[in-house]
Amino acid sequence: MKRKGIILAGGSGTRLHPATLAISKQLLPVFDKPMIYYPLSTLMLAGIRDILIISTPQDTPRFEQLLGNGEKWGLNLQYAVQDSPDGLAQAFIIGERFIGDDLSALVLGDNVFYAPKAPACLPTTCRTRSATAWPKSNYTVTGLYFYDNQVAELAKSLKPSPRGELEITDLSRLYLEQSKPNVEIMGRCYAWLDTGTHESLLEAGQFIATLENRQGLKVACPGEIAFRQNWIEVARLEKLARPLAKNGYGQYLLRILKEKVY
């Protein structure tokens, strides 16, 4: 069964003020590319091509300007508005029609994943607990979730938490009660970075810069991923690269066409 993806790129980014007073945090750069390229690439590497981007009324047009309809990467990108940040689980209610009868995946727009294998193998959750409870283990929940096609109905059955939000932990708890969760633990060579603060945003950029400079390879490069997934052809990749030829990002795409870059 096909799986569709959702990127939740809303919120007000208060922890990043004043940098996010006039722009979505998911449009801020993480080293050499917009933050949203990272969750987008995570879904692409999982083989997901139908993706819904949920953002605020004021920021949705900016994402559309940046990403378009996804055709340039062999994707089908759609957009939806979240009028107010009422919890992560609300993403499935907003995206109910988009998901339809397909499987689903949700990735948070400010999460950066780096893994040696496809992110379909990344953990979705480790333990479910209240957002305000004291942690009972050393495990934490990452910002990447894979669900079945019943997720929207279950999300609609949730009641707001004391902080007034539809909690993703409550949604996961429903699956736990049905004995349906599939849990995987991040092992060595995995990296999960939250970019929601000034310090963590800087650290994420430094991490990506170190990887790219040492390896000579790009992390979260949608054009490269689409090309290697055989979603676009040589001519399309070259068309993507030419307008960017004056910087390292575009030069990297051109190098893919000329050399065996792995």
UniProtKB/TrEMBL annotation:
UniProt family annotation: Belongs to the glucose-1-phosphate thymidylyltransferase family.
Keywords: Magnesium, Metal-binding, Nucleotidyltransferase, Transferase
Protein name (record): glucose-1-phosphate thymidylyltransferase
Catalyzed chemical reaction(s): dTTP + alpha-D-glucose 1-phosphate + H(+) = dTDP-alpha-D-glucose + diphosphate
Residues in Nucleotidyl transferase domain copies: 4-116, 135-209
Keyword Nucleotidyltransferase attached: yes
Cofactor: Mg(2+)
Superkingdom in the source lineage: Bacteria
Source species taxonomy: Bacteria, Pseudomonadati, Pseudomonadota, Betaproteobacteria, Burkholderiales
EC class (word): transferase
